[in-house]
Amino acid sequence: MPPSQTPPPIVPDSSDAQTNTQITQTDNQYDITGGARSAGEAPNLFHRFERFNVEVNGTANFVTPADVANVINLIDSAEASTIDGLLQVTGASANLYLINPAGVIFGQTARLNLPANLVVSTADQLLFDQQALAVEDGSGYAALTGAPAAYRFTSETPATIENAGMLAVTPGQQILLMGGTVQNDGTLSARGGQVTLAAVPGEHTVRLSRTDGVLSLELDPTALNAKPLALTALPVHLTGGAIAEASEMLASAEGVQLVSAEATPAAESAQTAASFAPDLTQPGTILVRGTIDVGNQVGGEANLIGDQIVLLGANIEASGEQTGGQISMGGQPASTGLSAVYVFVDRESQLSTASSLGSGGDILIWSDDTALFYGTANTEGAVEDGTFTIDAQNRLERLAPRNRQR
To answer: What angle do CA 257, 258, 260 make, to 5 degrees?
Structure first.
């Protein structure tokens, strides 16, 4: 290719003769055909790429046979995929998978036109009923039936997933973003469905339950001696186990600092300003500065699972006119084995599972160490309020007046 020529945004993996992925360009639209099918009814359709990007005003259109259940795209590249245009599936009501161990970045102009779920991951292996498929060396596609049961991250520092766009799936469907770090500065919408952000520390396997969509974590032996989460400044602990109320704070991507913090009367001696400055580039981190919307007639579920979870000016909407949905952050140790070490929600963040006609939904926050909540939590219901629960093993701060419960 001449030095001045721009490489095409989507390049099939020419070394994989089994998939035989074909690209047809018409103006800014790239129709993707071919692929390798798994056996049986409702098969998977596998594509492999050495480069996969979608430009501004561009469309990646996966032309799919009607019987296909899952379109699984394996991107074996040294560079992250940048999606600045439209991802589209035509011909089938199939789920779309984008798997790139080097990372996936959705720009501000990224959009979706999908009939079913979106799954994006930076895992380097997929597990199908104990049979592994490596992104860098795919083969034996016919035997890989059913949806992926697990995602294996063999790297110590799995790559990131970032979203600044408007990613919306059909109501009732799901969005799952699973990487070393996950950042949402845009909008993720699955009205009445489910949005899950999972930030995975290195050398872990994430297993997805096929019955209820609950994530569970399986530790590889190499991960058992992993170092604890490192913070540049640990929070100051309050005396007497009191709950503090912070009156002002400074927030940025680099961390969060509380200024002019005023403790409850039981902890007047702890009026020293505290700081919470996690390394947001560390695997296992979720940062939300945008919107997650699963609200509908019946609210859906928003799940944030990782070692440290930071919300800065975030809006998580799980309200339902008939019934409120559920928001969970930090994992659910009893059922999944996953729980956060630190959770931080700033005073500009808003969480809602309210219901104007029925019962409000629940907001659940877990942390093995510290949970700092200064935002607004609304679980009100016309019939019955939902619950707002924060469980932190070491330190808890909650600004109660901004939590709307009757």
So the answer is: 140
